[in-house]
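RECORD TYPE: inverse folding
INPUT: structure tokens
STRUCTURE:
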């Protein structure tokens, strides 16, 4: 249920507010992570990050799936629609490439890595988190979809993007 303040906003204002909310969500994710990283180190922070994303990605995928009224097994078409509505999709530059029974999702510009570089911090070793996050998201959309990292720090092999993930529909 939207508040009266939201109902009074124009479409342009609502779009800007969505962008602000997405950036705020990512900021709180980074704030807690960096707090743990400073106090307990990267390994401990990563352990908690994986645990958080294991739960959050399912919550996000279920809500988007319901919003889009996707069927139980939505296939790669459903996954593509859902990926475009994730919180990240509003603040990271990305692309989706389709071929046969695969979908390649590439983050071209990642706000997390850009912010860490700007602060002279080492890159976030996000592959372990991404494996949990993207696989879990895809399984909610369609339990026949598997996911693997193609390029993701610390195993980054493609300098044309921040990371890339290959989703495969197993029939």
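DESIGNED SEQUENCE:
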């Amino acid at each position: 249920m939207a508040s009266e303040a939201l109902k009074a906003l124009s479409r342009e204002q609502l779009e800007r507010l969505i962008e602000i909310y997405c950036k705020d969500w990512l900021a709180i994710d980074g704030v807690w992570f960096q707090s743990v990283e400073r106090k307990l180190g990267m390994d401990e922070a990563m352990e908690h990050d994986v645990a958080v994303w294991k739960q959050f990605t399912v919550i996000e995928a279920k809500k988007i799936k319901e919003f889009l009224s996707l069927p139980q097994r939505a296939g790669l078409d459903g996954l593509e629609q859902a990926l475009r509505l994730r919180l990240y999709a509003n603040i990271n530059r990305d692309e989706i490439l389709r071929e046969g029974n695969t979908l390649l999702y590439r983050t071209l510009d990642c706000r997390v890595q850009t912010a860490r570089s700007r602060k002279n911090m080492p890159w976030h070793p996000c592959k372990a988190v991404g494996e949990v996050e993207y696989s879990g998201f895809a399984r909610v959309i369609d339990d026949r979809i598997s996911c693997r990292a193609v390029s993701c720090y610390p195993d980054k092999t493609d300098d044309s993007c921040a990371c890339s993930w290959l989703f495969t529909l197993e029939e």
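NOTES: Helices lie at 4-7, 11-40, 42-67, 75-83, 111-118, 127-141.
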